[in-house]
């Protein structure tokens, strides 16, 4: 595998805000704590150490150990969980929805990114421990976003009519789709079949934890589910403040105005109350109006009633996109959050929310982004002499450039036509020299020669045109593989599309070896 780097500024695939988050976080210095760098991790450690006390660590470790009670072969992860009791242990975190069978490839990339980042930090700061964490967004309720994935250009969808937080979904209909996936891999001894077997549990949360753990168990990844009663109890003081004051809305509105002044794009919209009410089959917004808290499907609560509900059932209160990052950072001894550019963009709106409850705002880093060129695609690219940087051009641009570059391939029949004229004159001269009365015969023979040459020219022209058509089709195939539907490959294809034999460990190890948490450029991986 070879790796090549491309500056994202030159690819025309990201807006200025996204590029600044990658290359120039100083542009948003007033909206963050420190710019992302391994050097600034030390500053973050000193600040987080003051906030995250022993009681929080004990609660976190106990909750995680309980969540891992039924997870098999988890010794490395358990060891990392226990490390978090120590005041010198911190986390590096990424998060994601519970995408069916890991969803698009960047899910794997972002997890490997935080794993490798943690390993690098251990070498740089030997007095501290760094634990990679994947925060499962189990409370999200937009199932349509996560129920499908594309494997080998085929769409696989888990159909269910369940509603509410997806993590609490039963696995009705799950086995049928898993069986369809398994049938794509013929080798019964391939790793994928053991993975599919492990992809199970009492609900979608448990199945996802088992899947992700099975993939990354050799790296000690810690997987956390925020839909946890004990962790929610700790968060209840923030929930109370939100219910009574709606503090996050005012902070977000103030920050949004400043961001717009700076020319930044507003990524998410805040509500007057940024909380949902949660039950199995239900995740409804909490709306404050007429001195009551209205919840669709549950009715109206007075202030006294909602406070009583919070005290008795803190697990029923779920943060939305505005408060979820705060919940995460209050729960973990976290130093940095890693995500894609769109995801990291909305973190620019959040620092005021963190400051309002005296929570340290983390470093925010953009994950590695990759384009993976498989050997078959690499051969096609070489066959039409396509340069690596050309893959970022549009299909039309590539086709136009190819035709212009290869216009010299158009057959030049002038020499052949001149030779034909000479031959026809010679034929006519020879025939008439023997018998002047054979003029008609000589004309007929010359016409026959001309017809043969025309047939030859037509044949050669057809071959030449077909060569261009093959190239045009090849360009389509390359672009569709690397940028399906005009999107980044990592956002469409499932990771296992790059494991055609069903064995994924070597591919994960290869990907891990090529990722670089300090690299800002886009990475192009090309198989030999």
How does this model look, in words?
By secondary structure, the chain is of the alpha/beta class. Among the domains are: 2-8 and 39-226 and 324-369 and 518-526, no CATH class; 376-487. It has helices at 16-23, 41-51, 54-67, 75-83, 106-124, 174-182, 191-198, 204-216, 229-245, 247-261, 303-312, 324-331, 341-347, 351-356, 375-383, 395-405, 414-434, 439-482, 505-514, and strands spanning 2-6, 89-97, 129-137, 148-151, 154-157, 222-225, 275-279, 282-289, 292-295, 299-301, 317-319, 334-339, 363-366, 370-373, 522-526. The protein has a five-stranded parallel β-sheet, with helices on both faces. The radius of gyration is 31 Å and the shape is elongated. The relative contact order is 0.15. The model has no long low-confidence stretch (mean pLDDT 93).
Structural class designation: alpha/beta
Number of helices: 19
CA(first)-CA(last) distance = 6 Å
By DSSP, the count of extended strands is 15
Structural shape: elongated
Strand order of the largest sheet: 6-3-2-12-13
Largest sheet: 5 strands, parallel
Query: What is the typical, i.e. mean, pLDDT?
Result: 93
- Residue runs with pLDDT of under 50 for 5 or more positions: none
């Amino acid at each position: 595998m070879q790796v090549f780097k491309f500056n994202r500024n030159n690819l025309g695939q990201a807006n200025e805000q996204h590029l600044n988050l990658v290359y120039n976080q100083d542009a948003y210095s007033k909206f963050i704590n420190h710019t992302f760098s391994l050097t600034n991790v030390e500053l973050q450690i000193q600040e987080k150490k003051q906030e995250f006390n022993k009681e929080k660590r004990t609660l976190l470790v106990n909750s995680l150990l309980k969540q891992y009670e039924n997870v098999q072969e988890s010794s490395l992860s358990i060891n990392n969980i226990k490390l978090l009791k120590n005041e010198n242990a911190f986390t590096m975190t990424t998060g994601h929805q519970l995408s069916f069978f890991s969803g698009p490839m960047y899910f794997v990339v972002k997890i490997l990114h935080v794993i490798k980042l943690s390993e690098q930090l251990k070498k740089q700061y030997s007095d501290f421990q760094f634990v990679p964490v994947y925060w499962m967004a189990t409370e999200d309720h937009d199932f349509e976003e996560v129920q499908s994935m594309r494997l080998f250009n085929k769409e696989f969808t888990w159909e269910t009519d369940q509603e509410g937080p997806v993590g609490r979904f039963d696995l009705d209909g799950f086995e049928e789709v898993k069986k369809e996936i398994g049938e794509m891999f013929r080798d019964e001894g391939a790793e994928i079949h053991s993975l599919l077997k492990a992809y199970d549990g009492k609900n979608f949360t448990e199945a996802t934890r088992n899947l992700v753990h099975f993939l990354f168990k050799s790296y000690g990844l810690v997987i956390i589910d925020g839909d946890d009663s004990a962790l929610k109890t700790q968060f209840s003081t923030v929930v109370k403040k939100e219910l009574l004051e709606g503090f996050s809305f005012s902070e977000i509105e103030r920050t949004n105005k400043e961001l717009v002044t700076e020319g930044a794009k507003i990524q998410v919209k805040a509500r007057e109350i940024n909380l949902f009410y949660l039950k199995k089959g239900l995740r409804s917004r909490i709306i404050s109006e007429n001195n009551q808290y209205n919840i669709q499907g549950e009715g109206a609560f007075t202030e006294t009633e909602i406070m009583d509900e919070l005290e008795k059932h803190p697990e029923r209160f779920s943060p939305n996109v505005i408060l979820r990052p705060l919940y995460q950072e209050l729960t973990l001894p976290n130093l940095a959050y890693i995500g894609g550019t769109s995801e990291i963009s909305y973190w620019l709106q959040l620092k005021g929310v963190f400051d309002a409850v005296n929570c340290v705002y983390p470093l925010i880093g953009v994950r590695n982004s990759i384009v993976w060129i498989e050997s078959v695609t690499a051969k096609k690219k070489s066959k039409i002499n396509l340069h690596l940087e050309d893959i970022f051009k549009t299909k039309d641009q590539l086709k136009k450039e190819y035709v212009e570059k290869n216009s010299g391939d158009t057959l030049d029949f002038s020499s052949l036509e001149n030779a034909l004229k000479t031959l026809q004159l010679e034929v006519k001269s020879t025939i008439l020299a023997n018998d002047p009365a054979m003029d008609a015969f000589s004309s007929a023979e010359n016409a026959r020669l001309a017809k043969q040459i025309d047939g030859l020219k037509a044949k050669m022209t057809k071959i030449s045109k077909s060569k261009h058509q093959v190239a045009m089709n090849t360009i389509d195939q390359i672009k569709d593989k690397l940028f399906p539907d005009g999107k980044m490959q990592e956002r469409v294809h499932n990771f296992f599309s790059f494991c055609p034999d069903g064995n994924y460990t070597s591919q994960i190890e290869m990907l891990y070896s090529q990722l670089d948490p300090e690299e800002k450029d886009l990475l192009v991986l090309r198989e030999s």
